[in-house]
Amino acid sequence: MNKRLTLGMVLGCMIIMLLVLGQPGIAARPFTVALVPGQTTEPFYISGRVGAEEAAAKYGINLIWEGSKEWDFMQQTQVVQSLLAKGIDALIIAPTDDKAMVRAIRDVVNEGIPVIAWDTTIVDKSLLACEITSDNKLGGNRAADALAKMIGGKGKVIIQNTNPGESTTDDRQRGFEETLESKYPDIELVNVFFCQEDQTKAATQVQSALLANPDIKGVFSTCTNATLGTAKGLEMARRLDVFHVGYDADPAEVEALRKGTVHLLVVQKPVLMGYMAVEYAYKILTGEGDSVPSLVLCNTVAATKANMDMPEISRFFYPTK
Known about the structure:
Strand order of the largest sheet: 2-1-3-4-5-11
CATH architecture of the largest domain: 3-Layer(aba) Sandwich
Helix content: 40-55%
Oligomer: single chain
């Protein structure tokens, strides 16, 4: 076989391959999208993963779930760097710090990889192709209205928060405070505590607050660990007369609601958020980015002991796996 014939055969094969790859519906490989949670063990993020996997199956996406068990921006930065080295087409991430995670996300964007923030966000919005989160400020507004109704519109209350610098919980606190200030002049916000995701610390802080101010009537907890810690603190202090509004619907929180150490839960919709994040990543990667909104705010539902077994409420409770 001469060289001319061999070269002709090679060129012919290359042309056929190009034609095949150019056929509609035939792709060289599926897109790889990384889904990075704030914590891999947190039921909220596990719920988000469920929705993300549904969307990935629909759109034929290779979905990578990778993160840290701890809420720690240094560990999350390492995860992002590892994913960048492996090679991904898009990143969906719940930043663990709105400022500290900017650098790692900028490194991803500089490689031409779109980034979608889900749940939490960063201060530099220009780096994000889309943000998907709950309307956290509105959630704080609603928590304030609910607690105010429980305590008759007057008395002392406290806030149990987690870490300063978390965009979601900061907004919940802000919404709660603004509502008290604008609508309930007879309610006094005594203190704001930060438990750093430590339930034991939250329980201790609540007990100390009750010792210093025995006439406290209500507590607003901004997240799962703050809610569970506060519930433990109220139980240990034997102060179940104090009304407690919490956030999220971890199985342990749902049990606390049934038990009476929580009186209302502001419940998010992480399954929907995870689904939308993957769907929007797919649209961006296939050239439909113009149809993707820059910000999506998802509504919440209010769960109480009276309505918690209704399907329209309980379907939003978070699974553990």
